[in-house]
Amino acid sequence: xxxxxxxxxxxxxxxxxxxxxxxxxxxxxxxxxxxxxxxxxxxxxxxxxxxxxxxxxxxxxxxxxxxxxxxxxxxxxxxxxxxxxxxxxxxxxxxxxxxxxxxxxxxxxxxxxxxxxxxxxxxxxxxxxxxxxxxxxxxxxxxxxxxxxxxxxxxxxxxxxxxxxxxxxxxxxxxxxxxxxxxxxxxxxxxxxxxxxxxxxxxxxxxxxxxxxx
Length: 214
Ligand code: MD3
Ligand code: FE
Description:
Elements: E1 8-10, E2 13-17, E3 20-23, H1 31-44, E4 61-66, E5 69-73, E6 76-80, E7 82-83, E8 88-89, H2 95-107, E9 117-123, E10 129-132, E11 144-150, E12 153-157, E13 167-171, E14 176-179, E15 188-190, E16 205-211
Antiparallel strand pairs: 1-2, 2-3, 3-14, 4-9, 5-6, 7-8, 9-16, 10-15, 11-14, 11-16, 12-13, 12-15
Fe (iii) ion binds near residues 132, 134 and 188.
């Protein structure tokens, strides 16, 4: 295994790179409150399947909360302060979202984290997210904090070119991953979620990704 991808398990955290790590089970104490927050957000801004600029319907169902929401349509990808489906601003962050994101970022070495967007992703069994970079944010150094809830999935963590070797990282209910600094622009994706039933989410995997857009 190359140094770049050396995986080191230290108690409840696994380093994926110099500034990327998995905090195993870190969100478990917040899980119930986070799921209630997701329900509040999706009541105001329902999960939907966006269309890519190429005209494909995305397998992952998405919505947002916070000052900005990630959107995709035939015109391209962008962050929008308004939910284009509802014609009004995205719902505010449920307070527990900000508390968890700030605390997890600090635990990973990024103090003072103030995200302004949270993308909510819902995966039904068989759903995958192909390898990509997150490059629609103005800030490409601030960390992204990702929270996995419900069905387990295998995360692909790659390099800085699409063709670079990837490592597979199992992500379980309650795991939090933090990527920032030099690791921020890595290619990443999610393998098809295996079928299953989770006591807290039923037949879904939910993922929250906190971002600093501006
Ligand atoms: C790794 N979501 O929403 S975790 C996404 O599980 C996204 O739903 C996946 O990729 C999911 O864009 C993966 C989030 C994530 C976000 C940014 C990253 C992983 C990252 C940036 C660099 C490396
Ligand atoms: Fe991503």
